[in-house]
Amino acid sequence: MKSNIGAFHKRVSVLKRKMRDSGLDGMIVSDRANVFYLSGFSSSNSMVLFTGKQTLFLTDFRYIEKASQMVTHLEVMQVGQGLLTETVKILKKAAPGRIGFEPNLTYQGFQTLAKGLGVKRFVPSSGILSTLRAVKDEDEISLIATNQKLNQRIWRKAIEATKAGESELSIRRRIRIALDEEDAEEAFGTIVATGPNSSLPHAEPGTRKLRRGDYLLIDMGVRKAHYHSDMTRTVGWGTTSARHAEIYNIVLEAQKKALAMIKPGVPAREVDAIARNFISEAGYGEAFQHGLGHGVGLEIHEGPTLNARSNDILAEGHVVTVEPGIYIPGFGGVRIEDLVVVTKDGYRNLTSAPKTYRDV
User: Are 203 and 246 contained in the same domain?
Assistant: First the structure.
């Protein structure tokens, strides 16, 4: 990431401005994704520390050589493996007033800080970086788009190679092998669900074998170069019933209505509502109870959130899933998920895998 050091420098500058606006004199950035977002370096033990006087990248001897080469826009400092203990020593010298901390900090970790510096100096600051990270720059969008293309290629290969009588676990194994061949990882545990198992939104692949007349639902994502992608497709296997096609087309129409609403300035809850209301009017309201979508980036689930409780407002640069579903216990379920980026006047769909209902 050294070649794009300007982007990381800009993120640090923007965060400093946001800290001042929030009345923070210092900040402890310990969440792994946030540390990478600001530094371009990922490890199991590192931290970015704003003291009010310095902006430090802290890590231990295992990573110091590589970090010194890559993190040229921050002051890299080697400390012991107990980062928070060292952080207390550094902050005592710098003596900032109000210090922000992140929610991934353990109770024991917070106690270390509070004992060394006093509990009143620490302020939860989770919203600052999550809001910044929600708006992707061009490089981030390019990485996510590339990963989604790879996601689709692997999905197509998996579908083409699948045969009736094959287990869910076997199909997932093929996907994992394809990811490994592409030097990529699963963005999350790949979901392969057949027949009635597809009524489980987060089904665990098992030994059930794919049969003619089944739904085959695959929800999968690629993680490569630190960024994620996400897509769900549901197809009919063999010849399915009219009810299978009816439910699928209700979900597809709900997704189309939601996509048509996406543009900057639109409340995320209103995008969720139009899909949810359409499914309810079709008689399946109780069968769609998860949120419509979520942001995707350095984490598979991040801001903004598209659900009925969301206070987020869509903005240019947001990358979100749009994934309505209907789930009928004992029968099966449909989810159709696209990954889109909010543009200046609408959205760009990063997902091109076919959505018209078809029996494979």
Answer: yes
Domain, as residue range, for 240: 138-349
For the chain, the residue count is 360
What is the tally of helices (H) and strands (E) in the chain? 10, 19
Q: How many CB atoms lie within 10 A of CB 144?
A: 25
**Is residue 49 within 8 Å of 74, Cβ to Cβ?**
no
Decide: 61 and 97 in contact? Cβ < 8 Å. no
As a whole number of angstroms, the distance between CA 151 and CA 223 comes to 9
Q: Which amino acid is residue 146, in one-letter code?
A: T
Distance CA 122, CA 309 (A): 28
CA end-to-end span of the chain = 42
pLDDT in tens, 26-65: 999 999 999 999 999 999 999 999 999 999 999 999 999 9
Instruction: Examine the domain organization and report whether 190 and 129 are in the same domain.
Output: no
**pTM (two decimals):** 0.95
Same domain, 194 and 218: yes
